[in-house]
Amino acid sequence: MHELLIGLIVTAGGSLLNFISTKIYNSVTGSSKNFIWKNTYPALKSIQTPLEFEELKKRTRIVVIDDEDSFPISLFQAENYSIDKWAAVKDYSKLENGFYDIIVLDIKGVALHISVDDGLGVLESIKRKNPSQIIIAYSQHSFDLSKAKFWELADEKIAKPSDYLKIKNIIDTLIDSKFKPGRYIETLHSILRKNGYDEIEIKKLDKELIKVIKNKQQPDWSNILDFASNKPELVHQIITIGNTLLKFFK
Fold this sequence. Notes:
- This protein is of the alpha/beta class.
- Helix content is about 50%, strand content about 10%.
- This is Response regulatory domain-containing protein.
C-alpha cells in the first residue's frame, strides 16, 4: 500500500511538472504543445484553404482609378468581377487599409489633391503602408525615368488604352499568382523579421491568427499586437495584411 501511494504521488508530481513545463515552453517559444508534447495548433501555412480560380475571382475586390473612360469596366462586370470605378482618389483610407485587393491606378490626373506626385505618390504611399497590396500602374504616358522607383513598386504595368483581353489576362494572372494566403503569410513574417522580431514572436502571431480562424471570430488586434504597441506603422501593416489574409477563411 505504501509503495502504491508513493507511485501515485510520483506519477501525479511528474504530470504536474510536465504540465508546468509545457506551459512555460509555450509561453517562451510561442509554440502550442499540449501535455504530451504534440502541437495543438498547426503552422499557419498548413491551414491554407485551396480555392478554385472562379471563387478567388469572386472574392477579389478591384478598383480602377482613372480620370478617363478607357478601362472596359462593363466587360469585367459582365464577367462577374467585383470592380469599382473612381475618376480620382476619393477614399484613400480604403486604398491604404486593404479594402481593395487589386488597385488599377492611373498615374496622372487622379490624386493631385492629396499628392504632388499624383498617382505615383499614392502608389508609393500605399506600398509603404501595405507592402502586400497588389497595384497595377495604368498610364498612357511614357515612363518617366526620374520616377523609376515608383514604377518598380507596381506589381504590373498596363499602357492605355489596352484591349479587354490583354487587361483581363494581366488581372487573372495576378489573382492566380498573388491573391493567395501563402503570400500574405510570407509578407507578415518578412515584415516582423525586418523589424527585429524573432521566430518566437512570429510563432506567437501565427498562433493567435489560427485561434481567430478556428473560432471564426473577429481578431482583437490590440491584444494580439501588444508586443508592437510602440510601433504604430508596423501595427497598421500587420492589421491590414492580417485582415486580407482572414478573407480566405470566411
